[in-house]
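Trying the structure run again after the queue cleared.
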Amino acid sequence: EADIKLGRISIGSPIARALIGKEAGDTAEVQAPGGIRRYEVINVRYE
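Done. Tokens:
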């Protein structure tokens, strides 16, 4: 679902679903096996 080394994530992955609709500067929270992870959106790019 993701290739972090290439900076890519699948649209169906939990992190992608949490990021939908977010803009630069927003934060997203994702429930991970080890607990909640928080991510800050730095940039949004669509290719």
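The longest strand covers residues 27-32. Worth checking whether this holds up in the mutant runs.
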